[in-house]
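Predict the 3D structure for this chain.
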Amino acid sequence: MVQAHDGTLYGTIDGQCVSGGNVTGFSLFKAVPGSGTGAVTTAEIIGSLPGGGYPLIEGNDGNLYGTGGEVNSSCPLGCGTVFRITPSGAATVLYTFGAGPSDGHSPSGALVLARDGNFYGTTLTGGTPNANCKASNGCGTFYRITPSGTETVLYSFGTNASDGIGPSGALLQASDGNFYGTTSAGGAANAGTVFKLVLGTTP
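Done. Predicted structure below.
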């Protein structure tokens, strides 16, 4: 869950039952903590989006932002989305991954709101294929997306022989202004890496 600046808690419930017993999408819930000892917290479902969802973050505008999966005709296995949800539950898809041959696929964690006001994240696959990345659909990307939905791939993993591939898990911007994260594979032992990414350079 994430706690907004007004104290309200927001979170997602993965899976919505639909006809045929299939489970798809996720629901957004809002919980208002009670005041005082033993007070009851009230909670309600306020919105939904297709695909699975990662933890939400609050933007500078007070809206909630997150990533999830969505199946579409150009990406039948689901390339993923970045979405915005207002505190009242109105959802907007800001970006759908897989828009170009070097774009990322499958967002692999929560967004990070950086000091420049933009959001940053990683995708598990996608990016520019290269000699060190044997996957036909790329080895993952580091991307930036503006609050209005303009996405830019800043780095494709697997670019050099010792590079990590398949970024996964939490991404953070440290006090030095650089971004740090982990990959699930690649590196000297092909067992994953911890990487630092400085904007405008490579990890």
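Confidence is low (pLDDT under 50) at residues 16-24.
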